Amino acid sequence: MGKLRLTKMQWLNISLLFILVAMAAVSGYRGLIAYFLNVKDSGGNINQKTTVHRLHNSALDIEKPAMFNVIFFLSKDCPLCNNYKPLMDSLRAEYAQDPRFLFVGLRTDADKATDSSYFLPLEYSAGKDLRYIADIFDASVTPEVFVVDSSNHVWYHGAIDNWSYDTGKKRQFATAHYLKDALSALCKGQNPAVAETKPVGCFIE
After folding, report:
1. Quick check: is 177 in a domain?
2. pTM: predicted TM-score of the whole model, two decimal places
3. Is the per-residue pLDDT at 200 higher than 90?
């Protein structure tokens, strides 16, 4: 039986096929790694928990996420957060019956997260992971708010309104209601007119 002889073109095609197979294998391997890096422990049933915001191979998991997730970085130790609490509660109450919206508070004072008087029941205590989660969101102060959908799109990020416009500086009344206007626009199926503002508050340490 004679030796199998291949032309240069056939060798080229075989080499190309091996390269494509190798690339597919590497891609699948990376996808598997990304899956395990991104998905946290879901208590044995992955369908009960959905990743709301996923960036840089890290995830914040929230039970029963909504179409629009209004995520606050908060601290009861921050005077500005306490000043904004009535407004935050009012907005939550306004959208409480709308399943498209979910309000979640990320507490920086994790050791006090059992205080049932502050931004409960929709609250996520990040504990020691808060600094890491804040880095993922690029959050720097409290209060700071993000309106994020389940596809990782940030519809609004920044201050609640312009009442506090600089460190230690406040207007008598807010003249621009950034978050409220953004939620109202999304409720109507419109893009927020203002998608990002500079948050003012207590620095997250």
Report:
1. yes
2. 0.69
3. yes
